[in-house]
């Protein structure tokens, strides 16, 4: 009888552990949403599409055209930098994306990350003698 009682308590304990695990996952997800994190994957895809010639990996940097600049101003660039993946970085250069963003008038915080790239202060303009 004592062994049967022990099995029932073990089963109840396992159920409690599962419940607490599920509750912590739900709470973590809710906190993630409350912190203002948003899904900006569509925006990322849009910037990659509109600015592909400027931010493409393996080619020289090209000054962004007006449609690219307008798209860069419209999207949440810090969010896009947070969601860049290794797969994205095989196609585009995060460093070029940061430069493109700056040239569109959207500054990103120095020291923050854009994909795997740590954002540095822009070089000062050249002084012409």
TrEMBL record:
Signal peptide: 1-36
InterPro entries in the record: Bifunc_inhib/LTP/seed_store
Residue ranges constituting the Bifunctional inhibitor/plant lipid transfer protein/seed storage helical domain according to the UniProt record: 29-114
Keywords recorded for this protein, A-Z: Signal
Protein name: Bifunctional inhibitor/plant lipid transfer protein/seed storage helical domain-containing protein
């Amino acid at each position: 009888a004592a062994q049967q009682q022990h099995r029932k308590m073990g089963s109840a304990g396992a159920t409690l552990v599962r419940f607490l695990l599920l509750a912590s996952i739900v709470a973590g997800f809710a906190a993630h949403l409350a912190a203002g994190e948003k899904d900006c994957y569509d925006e990322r895809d849009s910037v990659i599409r509109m600015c592909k010639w400027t931010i493409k990996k393996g080619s020289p940097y090209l000054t962004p055209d007006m449609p690219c600049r307008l798209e860069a101003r419209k999207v949440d660039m810090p969010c896009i930098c947070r969601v860049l993946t290794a797969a994205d970085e095989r196609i585009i250069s995060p460093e070029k994306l940061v430069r493109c963003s700056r040239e569109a008038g959207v500054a990103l915080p120095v020291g923050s990350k854009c994909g795997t790239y740590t954002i540095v202060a822009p070089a000062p303009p050249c002084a012409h003698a």
